[in-house]
Design goal:
binds magnesium ion, alpha+beta, binds adenosine-5'-triphosphate, 11 strands, 186 residues, 2 domains, five-stranded antiparallel β-sheet, globular, Phosphorylase Kinase, domain 1
């Protein structure tokens, strides 16, 4: 069986346990951490490959749900609807752009070891800024606000943080070498 078929098998076992429908044709997306399908509810059911990514993602969605967070800096955040530790499956609400999702590659409570390496972080931020163009300032605000919940989000790509606008690639050449000052959410 292929990796993806194995993921779908686990997603189906989860769906059965919750008495919800799931069909392979309804895949919302896939990536390095797993695959996501739209259920009959509808919700998004994500089956993950690794326990580390699963636990990190579950911890983030749990923290955000407990804090009542449904959006950050104008980006909708999926709400945790269910999970199964043995199947490494999480079920979250479906979001439409602008949205923020995919907490598989976060660091929790402590930043990654390279966080204080100014050159490395400047390079990473230059790459992120290139992807988001004029939207980078808003996205950087999201990353900063997430730290209030002990979440260091290190995977800001347009597939994970979606502005819903087509000019993500546009660059306004502003020097955002510093993260913006903290802003209030909601
Ligand atoms: N709750 C959701 N609502 C709407 N679309 C979703 C939802 N969850 C996932 N998707 C879609 O599925 C895609 C893959 O999901 P996700 O980024 O969580 O997978 P991944 O395997 O962690 O990907 P990556 O390669 O970024 O690690 C997303 O880019 C998005 O298009
Ligand atoms: Mg992703």
């Amino acid at each position: 069986m292929t990796d993806d078929a194995l993921l779908f098998q686990r997603a189906c076992l989860y769906a059965e346990s919750k008495a919800i429908g799931l069909e392979s044709k309804d895949r919302l997306g896939h990536g390095s951490d797993g695959s996501v399908w739209k259920s009959s509810v509808p919700t998004a059911v994500k089956a993950l490959y690794s326990q580390k990514n699963y636990l990190h993602e579950l911890e983030c969605y749990t923290r955000l749900k407990n804090a009542g967070v449904q959006q950050i800096n104008g980006f909708f955040v999926p709400v945790l609807e269910g999970f199964d530790d043995s199947l490494m499956v999480i079920e979250i609400s479906i979001v439409k752009p602008p949205y923020l999702l995919d907490f598989g590659k976060v660091y929790i409570d402590e930043p990654p070891p390279y966080y204080n390496d100014a050159q490395l972080m400047a390079n990473a931020q230059a790459e992120w800024r290139g992807w988001f163009g004029k939207h980078w300032i808003r996205v950087a605000g999201v990353l900063r606000l997430l730290q209030k919940y002990g979440i260091y989000y290190m995977d800001p790509r347009p597939s994970n943080i979606c502005t819903g606008e087509e000019d993500d690639e546009e660059d306004d050449s502003t020097d955002w070498s510093e993260m913006p000052a903290e802003e209030e959410d909601e």
